[in-house]
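Why do we bother with holo predictions? Because pocket geometry can differ from the apo form. Keep that in mind while you read this record for adenosine-5'-triphosphate.
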Amino acid sequence: MKRRMGRWRALLVLLWRAGRWQAVVVGVLAIVQGLLPTGLILATGELVAAVPDAVRQGLDSAAGDRALWALGLVGGAFVAGAILQAITSYQVSVLDNRYAEALHDAVARATLGTPGIAPLEDPRIANEIAALEEVERVDNFLETVANLRQVVQERATGIGAFLILLSFAWWAPFVLYIGWRAVIVMVTRLVEHGVELGFSLGAAGEMRRSRYLRGLAVESAAAKEIRVFGLADWVTGSYAHSWLTSMRRIWRGRFNDGLRTIGAVAVLAVAHVVVLGVLGWEAARGTLSVAQVVVFVQAVLATESLGWVGDPQWATSRAAVVAGQVVDLERRLAAAPSAGPARAAVDGPSGPVAVRLENLSFTYRGRAQPTLSGLDLEIPPGQSLAIVGENGVGKTTLIKLLCGLYDPDAGAVRIDGASPQQDRSRIGVIFQEFVRYELPLRENVGFGNLSLTGEEEVLRRALADAGGADLLATMPLGWDTVLARGYEGGRDLSGGQWQKVALARALTAIRGGAGLLILDEPTANLDVRAETELFDRFLELTRDTTTILVSHRLASVRHADRIVVIDDGRIVEDGTHDELRALGGRYDRMFGLQAQRFAAEAAGTGGGEADA
Ligand SMILES: Nc1ncnc2c1ncn2[C@@H]1O[C@H](COP(=O)(O)OP(=O)(O)OP(=O)(O)O)[C@@H](O)[C@H]1O
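The structure, written out:
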């Protein structure tokens, strides 16, 4: 009961956000419209009572006047209903669109509301979000307000009928109400149980797996591998198996709920037999007039509105369950401060920052071994630092902590003395798996600092500095060319071109005032020579910026002011390229091995990648 109240409250919260005054107007009009049938029933009774005398005494008699008045009321109720319907339908459609927007906003706010990314990697929350997206996609919720309005209107009609029946016998409306209540409870349970089951399954691995497999089958991302590796049968077979496994649970649940609903319908039938039976008996005894019988029979039929009102109620119950889930998720995720406001416009770089990592320890959820343990690092303003180490030693993890995307288990990250979550505008970062936004070139470069998306000269310089000077000329719509096929004038980019765009984005962040530039191997699919050239150019361009380069290819970063080697969750070597080579330790061994390999490759290909 408490949970159900919470869901309805959540639905009203979202409705209030969608448009408070429109919601109130639509609600009031729905109640008025719902009470019109009560007026109609009473007016019909009046008409039936007046007609015999009016026929006998003529229309210009007092009885005739009464009949004409009653007729006017019947007609008036019909006309008022039609007018109210016309007035509300526009309001409802506007509010409906806004409600759907409010719902999508709430989901987006929930997912964007966490300062770090750890909650989104929590499998339970990731599953919940996936399930919500699926329900949103399927139900769309574009008619939630129309359905809710219909339910409110029906309830008002039912209450009117209930009040009329009180004047027949005090117990009669209660008996009918119990019958309808039984049906409502069972059908609501059927619906909600279905949605809950669907949601819990949707949030569970099996259903999510089936959706993923369906995506693999129909989307283009895996089309090449599915064909080359001959995976088509496996994908369709596994999809069918996953889908059926999860759906069977829903079907079993629905069958049991269906049986209970049949029981409730039997209770309702008995309630009607009792009330209509007594009504008939009273009429036969002559204790009720014809007009009263007409009024009470209509009222009995109208109590139907106290019961299950069909599709609108079905849809509203589903919408309430989803609203409850959304508001709950929002509350849980958005309790923390926002993911970060848009960056403010700053007049050029605001100076390099000092970075301090103190005794940093971090273990991924579900992992026994810490990825970082007791790591200390201090980077003075303006220094260029390379972080190197074998695959999987925790270089990217360190960068994510530095950006405040995870909270350390112990220790602290300080950027100019502050936590990175306090002011991310000081950081420009491009990760290895940087985002290829299906948006215009302008945003792809300008997202480094949103306030600069209109400054084409700044964007052009950033793109040129990132090595993409010629890219703009090939764009049919210039900065407004969407970087994806399938859009008017859209263009897809090669892997190398995408990297240049991503690097330009990082440079835009610097132009917008970031004092720390981090490149976490966005150049991994360049060859060593190209990566080295690019890193060198960046070091040149960002002389006044604190720079962190991440790579496991040592040759690419040897011109950095300082190099640190990570292993076993901490920094094991720290110095310049020459110092670390002279040290003869881990860096020296790794460098020697890589240099040998490149020399061998170069000899084999006639290329010149040997650089040691
Ligand atoms: N989101 C995550 N959840 C759990 N474990 C993770 C997650 N991300 C990374 N790891 C694990 O943490 C360890 C460090 O990963 P990280 O990506 O930081 O290494 P890296 O040094 O950047 O590697 P590479 O050079 O291959 O990019 C790896 O063992 C990896 O499997």
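The chain has two domains: 2-334, 355-605.
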